[in-house]
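Good morning C.,

I know you're traveling, so I'll keep this short. The sequence:
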Amino acid sequence: MISATNTEPTQATLPSQQTWRPLRLFNLYRLLISGALLIYALSDFSIKAIGHYSPLLFKSVAIVYFIVCIINFLTIKWQRPGFSTQVYTQVIIDIIAITLIMHASGGIQSGFGMLIIVAVAGGSILLAGKTALEFAAIAALMLLGEHIYLQLSDPDASTAYTQAGLLGAAFFATALLSHALAKRVRVSEALAEKRGVDLANMQQLTQYIIQQMQTGVAVIDNHTQLWQINESARQLLNIPTPKNNPPLSQVCPELAFQYQLWLKDTGTAPQRFQPGTSATEVLPHFAQLGEQIGTLIFLEDTAAMSQQAQQLKLASLGRLAGSIAHEIRNPLGAISHAGQLLAESNNLDKHDIRLTEIIRTNTQRMNSIIENILQLGRRNQAEPEVIALKPWLESFIDEFCRGQNSNPDLITLEIEPASLTCEFDTSQLHQVLWNLCHNGIRHSHSLINESRLLLIAGKKEDQPAPFLEVIDFGPGVPEEAIEHLFEPFFTTETKGTGLGLYIAKELTECNYAHLSYFPAETGGSCFRITFADPRRRRTA
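The tokens, ready to paste straight into the viewer:
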């Protein structure tokens, strides 16, 4: 979950590794000091200023101080008790232990008071608030108490109250300066951490947005090796997740070819291409990131672009059809009615009757064209839903055969797997399939005695999108007519309107699907509906 914090920079906001690690370093310093004192206490070294006043006290304190430091290593590792308790306890122990060692070494003149300054400074840095002044006050009281006790127990000892006062003032000065420095460090650390969290959140948000984009995004370096690719681009190119930064030519040769064309002339308009065996057409766009960085590649699904274009085109067509419908249908109706009345006359010869039949046939054809155009304009926006193809196709075949007075056994259905599903608007799929099957039945009559159709549904191994093929056993489409097959008003029959396949293709593209034609191996025609890739997200 992406979140941003807006809290004040306090000790509590710092992560544990930033608080316990300094305490661990501070305890390491304590262990080194206590170890050095212990080694001196247990050795034969003889330095007059260290431990000469009370050797037994010096040795006992050194041993206990060293053991406590070792125990503190374990408590810091376990983080029990809490951080503040451990810091407070360790600093107080340091003040007491060093004061006793200083007393065993003859008092303030021994110089051990400087170690107390280090303990006060360490505690002031590690803990916030007024605790720094408490450490300084405790250290000053311990120092004064030790000096008074030394004077009372040994009247011959030299007095050094001035030195003790200066050292006590140094405690307070050190505490205040350390506290101010530590406060600024904490503010800087908290600000740095907040910015780090914001930066991490921004990076996570950016990655999430890129991964969720409908547009495919890929980045290649100057050696055309693939650095990054989002899920949409991977699905559009129909490739698995790349590993070890493979060359672009290995990932998608078609895209690599488009990239080389762009390198030769960056002003060249990008060309659509089909990656591998995918039925999806992809439109690439290239942007140079920098001479030493690489190139950013945007990949757009032309099916989504076509769907939006179709919506705009059909909306315009609907407005046009609505505006001319009354202008055409009224005189067309008058011509048709006049032709019918003329045909009922008893004074017509057979040639005139033939002319009235031509009038009636062509007015019906014009009316059919107008109905188809109005149907395009009035059609609602596609509402794709998940369809279980096997039961849906079985129901469709039964309905189609009843409507065409055909034997259901003449239509063969092959579907694998039986649980195959697709995404399509059911009413529009019904219209598309009815048109394809009707054409197949009509053309199959011209070749064999009885109509036959073969419906094959399935999914290829290298193509995640399901497909549905309608195969007839007719003469097929002439080669010169294939490229015009889905154009409006193009027909190879004198009685056709040329809008059936055009409408079918429009409907498939509005459902992010693709309708294509292939010559069938049986010699007839094969119309393939490649349904939307189930991995791709749809936009309204």
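Safe travels,
E.
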